[in-house]
Amino acid sequence: MTDLRLVDYIPVSKLVVPQTLVERPRFPVVDTHNHLSGEFGGGWDQRPVEELLDVMDRAGVKMLVDLDGGWGEDLLNKHLDHFKNKAPQRFQIFGGVDWSKWVEHADRFGEWAARQFELQIRRGAQGLKVWKILGLHVKDQRGTLAPINDPRLDPIWAKAAEFRVPVLVHIADPVAFFDPIDAYNERYEELHHHPDWSFYGPQFPSFDLLMEEFEDLILRHPATTFIGAHVGCYSENLSWVGKLLDRCPNFYIDIAARISELGRQPYTSRRFFLRYQDRILFGVDISPDLDWYKIYYRFLETEDEYFNYGAEEVPGQGRWYIYGIHLPANVLEKVYQLNAHKVLCPQ
Ligand SMILES: [Zn+2]
User: Fold this and answer.
1) CB atoms within 10 A of CB 224
2) Cα–Cα distance between 251 and 204 in angstroms, integer?
3) Whole-angstrom Cα distance, residue 185 to residue 267?
4) Distance 16 CA to ligand 1 centre (A)
5) How far apart, in whole angstroms, are the C-alpha atoms of residue 310 and residue 300?
6) If we measure between CA atoms, which residue out of 213, 250, 204, 203 comes closest to residue 234?
7) Which residues are placed with Cβ below 5 angstroms of ligand 1, an ion?
């Protein structure tokens, strides 16, 4: 027998266990982490809004946060016109920070960015999205990498507090993206397909340093509501996320694109959801797709064991399957909608 290549290995589980397909969520859903740009920086989801709304209706999603409002006026206006204005109760659009202007505004960059964000709010933005380039790529006017907790950026966070809009922050990435792409990397296949997703090497700060800066950012701005994307940016370590939630009442998390991580540690996850049931927001990180929503509902609602968390035969984030955490109804309702109502702007 010749050696089998990893790419050709697609084992089929022989387990005979219940398969509970959840067609509709138990409660109406607010999707707090979504992207309606077809490709960020340009257009938007190419489907007519009516079609998007139809998918949302069938998936039981009553409202969706589009994080792709961008950092200028044009893109934000496009997203407001194309989505929000057509169905104001169904969409919220978040704005962003134009980091490329740090050189131009030098020591006044933070104040300038805060003023830009205020203009975005006045136009209709209902929150701020901070992309993971902060910490990994954003440089100040001297070309020095800016830490996530850089005090020069404080005016931005203060502005969000002043207008009572949330800041959804994505810091770093899966921990394995900071390791060498080798036989020991649990996301080897994903990184093999996308080598540019790797943050391994001396040109990048370590994962631990980014998390320390992130923690300090949340701690130093208690009046600002932060949503830590992707399970507080550290879904591999729910104990770390829990400690930050314990220390910072202004901190919430979303579960977008991380049921792969949550569902492979089902006992720890279930305890985490029960303990932090008031701080967890639903989101999927992928533009409305009925099948994706159903996988999330199955994870949150059922006791199903060992199922694929993705659409491919070998799921994209790693070669493992997940387990449902069968949350009680009162917790499900908080995660699906009630926590979002607390954190997001009223419509
Ligand atoms: Zn996202």
Assistant:
1) 23
2) 26
3) 24
4) 35
5) 15
6) 213
7) 285
Cα 327 to middle of ligand 1, angstroms: 24
Ligand 1 midpoint to CA 35 (Å): 6
Give me 177's structure tokens. 């993206």
Per cent of the chain over pLDDT 70 is 98
What confidence tens digit (pLDDT) does each residue in 313-340 have? 889 999 999 999 999 999 999 999 999 9
Q: How far is the CA of 318 from the centre of ligand 1 (A)?
A: 18
Query: How much distance in Å is there from the Cα of 10 to the middle of ligand 1?
Result: 28
Helices (H), 88-181: 102-105, 109-123, 133-136, 154-162
10 falls in which pLDDT band (50, 70, 90)?
A: very high
Name every residue whose Cβ is closer than 8 Å to that of residue 93 and which is 6 or more positions away in sequence.
Answer: 65, 66, 68, 69, 76, 79, 80, 83, 84, 124, 125, 126
Distance CA(281)–CA(56), nearest Å, equals 17
Q: Are 123 and 71 in contact (CB under 8 A)?
A: no
